[in-house]
Amino acid sequence: MLKLAVLFGGLSNEHSISLLSSASILRNVDRNKYDLAVIGITRDGAWFLYENADPDKIESGAWEKEPGLRRALLSPDRETHGIILPETGETMRIDVCFPVLHGMGGEDGTIQGLLTLAGIPFVGPGVAASANSMDKSLTKIIVDTTGVRQADYYIALRPDYEKNAQAVARAAAEKLKNTYPMFVKPCSSGSSVGVARADDFDTLVSGLAEAFRWDTKVLVEEFIDGHEVECAVLGNIDPVASTVGEIAPTQTFYTFDAKYNDETSALYIPAHISEEAIETVRKNAVRVYTALGCRGLSRVDFFCTYKDNEIVFNEINTIPGFTSISMYPKLFEHAGLSYPALIDRLIELALEEAHG
């Protein structure tokens, strides 16, 4: 039986989403196939082996108060190939890891680097693909090479902003031809954290101030008026794309609350766009995934414009949400791949990538 480590929690502002995703995975993983080592990371960065592995307590955050938590360290030593329990010096070998960590410290290549040093196969893209996908400015630069249409953009840097905030705002506005609205996003923050809509120059200035609270680089993007659609990609060298799903949020854009707390946001599978547009999304999703060097899985998000059905790349998520209402597992369920079977396939892909 494979020893499967499930990592959850983490340091990022998406900690609570990781709790929801990991709880959902633990409810769906086939425990007859895997011997689980469930490892929680607190918001302060302390690692614990959580042997009770109670998904309800993980979801609520109550796991941190459970008796019997044991401090755990992921060793970079390949002889250990797993975790060390420092209180006893005991080691636990890990065969494969599912890092259910969203945002910084989870999707940015850091945990992937540690797992690579340790020689432990893991679900999802490697170090470079994770880092380039997490930083929206780097993603934009790479996608520019693919021919896939994306929103026009301006990259703002904190040193320039601190020197002259108004000048940065003016430069961004000029780059986007002073056409409002615009969207202002921290480059390395996910789940719409720190994202603001700017309807005029004053709200552009305030949006930059908010975004720079979360990151040292900020992306100012052209507004695309269209359907918000998502495509799940699965695979290593020969990835496959799911059908396309559509989000119809009740708010002006798909905020953090709309993604995880607002059950009135409608999800449509397949999306309410033409068959031709769906095929373009699927083709472009694989193109972006491949250009970034992704492996295992990613969710690739696009807009389909209302005016002329043009497909415009939005962003990529290398560890997409796995909650009960998340699009990634729902898209593959629609294709006939159940949630437990999807977990199995992701683990197979992790082992294939590690062992060639």
TrEMBL record:
Its cofactor is Mn(2+); Mg(2+). It is found in: Cytoplasm. GO terms for biological process: cell wall organization; peptidoglycan biosynthetic process; regulation of cell shape. Mg(2+) 1 binds at D301, E315. Keywords: ATP-binding, Cell shape, Cell wall biogenesis/degradation, Cytoplasm, Ligase, Magnesium, Manganese, Metal-binding, Nucleotide-binding, Peptidoglycan synthesis. Pathway: Cell wall biogenesis; peptidoglycan biosynthesis. Its main location: cytoplasm. It catalyses: 2 D-alanine + ATP = D-alanyl-D-alanine + ADP + phosphate + H(+). The keyword Magnesium applies. The active site is at E14, S191, S326. One of its GO terms (cellular component) is cytosol. Binds 2 magnesium or manganese ions per subunit. Its EC number is 6.3.2.4. ATP binds at residues 136, 183-185, 191-192, 221-228, 314-315. Residues 140-348 form the ATP-grasp domain. GO terms for molecular function: ATP binding; D-alanine-D-alanine ligase activity; metal ion binding. Mg(2+) 2 binds at E315, N317. Belongs to the D-alanine--D-alanine ligase family. PANTHER family: D-ALANINE--D-ALANINE LIGASE, D-ALANINE--D-ALANINE LIGASE A. Cell wall formation. This is D-alanine--D-alanine ligase. The lineage of its organism: Bacteria, Bacillati, Bacillota, Clostridia, Eubacteriales. The gene is ddl.
